Each structure stands twice: as structure tokens, then as C-alpha cells.
Amino acid sequence: RSIAADENGMRKGDCESGLPELYIGIQYKDSPRMRNWNRRLFMLSRELVKEALRRALATGADYAEVFAEHSLNKNINIISGKTDKIGDTVISGVGIRIFKGTRCVSGSASSLAPEAILGCASKVADALTGMPLVRDIVLRERLFGNIHPVRVVPGDVCNAEKIDYLRQACLAAKDYSDEISQVSGTFLEVDHKILIATSEGLFAQDRQIRTRVIVSSIASGNGENQDGAVNHGARKGMELLEEYDPKALGREASRQAVTMLHAGYIKAGTMPVAIENGFGGVIFHEACGHSLEASSVALGQSQFAGKLGTQIANEKVTAIDDGTIPNSWGSINIDDEGTPAQRNVLIENGILKSYMIDKLNGRRMGMASTGSSRRQSYSYEPTSRMTNTYIAAGQDEDRDIISSIEYGLYAKSMGGGSVNPVTGQFNFSVDEGYVIRNGEICEPVRGASLIGKGSEILMNIDMVGKNVARAQGMCGASSGSIPTDVGQPLIRVSSIVVGGR
What we know:
There is one protein chain. By secondary structure, the chain is α+β, with helices and mostly antiparallel strands. Helix content is 19%, strand content 39%. Strands 1, 2, 3, 4, 5, 6 and 7 form a seven-stranded mixed sheet that branches. A six-stranded mixed sheet has the order 12-11-10-15-22-21, with helices on one face. A five-stranded mixed β-barrel has the order 9-16-17-19-23. α4 runs parallel beside α5 and α6 crosses α10. 49% of the residues are buried.
């Protein structure tokens, strides 16, 4: 989609004195004036935003926030070499919140027109009764910088180039084995622009570009199907694809599927487990990470509530949530309340050091925000969420971790799972697993799952490797689905229940 512009960057039909109030996501020719527009991303007038804040505060709220969004999302999917779907989605609207103490009222409108924004602010205010606090809102723009440079914006590249990459991956996946019955490839791109203004005077904007590629294979034989998949994503543009050979991605997806097709079943029981790096970090993310979010802690609905400064993990465990990692999938410049991204050490040598905190739950806890407030879109109310969460490197060698296990499970690739943050009880599937026998990785097994409690698994991590790797996923919770990284080195859990046959 393109919009014609003349040498001054004007769209055809625009006039110098009658520029539209809002300019979002339009590429203009370079000029000092246009560079300023592109830097600011949005052109919602400050007076409009100030009036919305005033209306939101009209019935006695002590804090108001305007969150405006305009996002362009693309999804390309091919199956067996043929293009199955090309989807383009535009998300545009505003979310408005007010606080009165620890009471919160929020609303949204699926339009950025002035009447929609002001109408939403008035309706949110109507939920409270009282007199407005006397104050003068002075909005000052804050530029927090960008630590996630994008070399090639995906929206500037034709679909054919993206489809060709997927086809190369799928062809290699299909050619891997005669047992591969179906392959698919998916290309995802997001161009997410946000504006945040608050009654405290904040006026800030950010642009978040993310790219992701996924390749999946299904192996079939003897009436059974097994699948394998690889995916890579980053807060980058098309340059991400230069980092991964599409043929190698396809072959890896099929290797997993064929390996599991010929695997036997593991016998259920309690045993030591070695969990590989990368997506193995989903164990910490789900079993422990959600319980460290203020959305659970502030309400006393977390297994770790009230335990700051106490030992909750083995002394070998240090866990971090870091939204400042350049170009990482879960990274941010500012969170969805306008707080700068931070590196938060959650657990240090087994001691609980910090929670992940948003503004509202920070009020409830008497603690400052840690830059952890996130939301899927303007239509969701933000709350504390993870960014890039991982177990830090330890001092153990990988070979020593494996050789220390007489009989157990090597979880090479983890799948999805679920957790109850109140109790910490979790259940995760193992996508690719192997029996460890006499300190050696032996035959592949399928059907394995890991079952336990977050507080117990943290104490049972008694060996931590040196090679940290991270992997990408989408995390779903009360504020919607958001991009997050998980990660760790190879770790050993001394004892955990393994589900199987």
C-alpha cells in the first residue's frame, strides 16, 4: 500500500494550511519537516490529549492515562509449497484509564477521531463521583531513544520475497524424508506505534517492529503423526532472515518430526531431568515467572507473595527479566505506561530480589514500577508482564550435567504447558526427549511431560550450565497475548515427576 507524495512530502490532495490532525505509518520523502513527522510517529495534538486527560479527571480521579495505538500486522502462510493465506490487519484506537487510590476504571474506543477520544474519556470519568482535583496538566515530550535499530522495515519489502524464503524452507523440509507428509511456513511482521500521555505530564511515543518466521513439519507412518517445528523472531526487520538459512530451518523441523515418529514412550516416574537451553526456559517463565508478576503478588495470589529477601531457589539460580536487550523479541524501549525498560534481577543466588511491577499494582504494594506493564493492544487493560526472562549462566559444564544422571530424562525441546500462579502447580509437555542412561544420552522417547510446583523446582535446580540461549514465544494472560523471550543454559533438576506410560 503506498500513498503518493510530492517533493515536500505532501500527500496529493493535502494543502499547506489544512494538514490532517493525525499522520500515522505513512512513508514520506525526506525533508526537515518530514523527518520531524516521522520521528514523532503520531500527530495527535497535545491539546486534544490534554483535553482527554482533563475530562478523565473530572470526577475526582488522581491519575489519568491516554494510550493511543496504530499497528500494521501481516501474516503469510504457505502449506506444501502453496500460498495459503496473506493477511493484513490494521489495529487503531485509544485506551483511557483513571486511578483513584487503588481503584481503576478503564475504557477504549476503536477510533482515533477527536470525538471518539473525548467521548471515551468522559465515559470513563462517569464511573466515579466526586470533585476534580485542581491541577494544570503540562505535557512534556520525552524521547527515551531506541536501542532496537531496524535496517529493513518489513512493510517496505514485497510479499514475493517473504514467500520465496518460506518456500525454500518448506522444500528442504519436504525433501528431508519420505515420511514427511506435510510442511508449512509462516512469516509474521508487526509495525506497532504507540503514544502514551498521562496526567503526570508524560508525553511519549514508540515504534516497535518485530519479525518472526516459523517452519513446521508432520511425519507420518503406521497410522501415526508426529510434528516438529522451529521458529525465530526478533525486534528486527527483514535482516532477521539473513541470520537463518531457510533450508536449515526446514531440515531441523523435519528432523524433529521423524525422530519422534520412531521414538518409544517413556515410563512415568520421579527422576532427575536435564532441560536444554533456549525454549527450555519456558519452565521458569510459566512455573515461576508468572508468580513474580505484581498482578498476582499484589493480591496475595502468588506462591512468592511476601518473600522478598528470602531464599526461594537453589543458590545456583539467578533469574533475570530484561527488557533492554537490543533487538530481542520481548524487548521494549518503554513499557505500555511509558516507564523506561529495565533489567530486573528477580532472583540472585537463590534470594528473591524483586517482582515485576506496573503502576496500579505498585500502588497496592507501595513499590515503584519496574517498567513491566504491557498490553496486547489499546483494548486491553495493561498489567505487569514479562519481557525477556531467563536463568543466568552458571559454572557447570554440560557434559558434567549429563554424566551426573544415572537414569533420567534429557528434555531437548520443550512444548507448551500451564500453571496456577497461586499454587505454582504446572504441567509441561516435552516435544523432543531422550532417555539418559549411565550418564549417556540414549534413545528418543515421546509422550513425556513435566509435572510439579514452581517453588519446588527452583530448589531442585542443582546444576546450571554456562551456555545461555533464548527462544521466542507469545505469552497469554489478562492483558492479552504479548511477545516474550524465554531462556536458560542447560540445567539439571535433581527430582521431578515425569509423566508418561
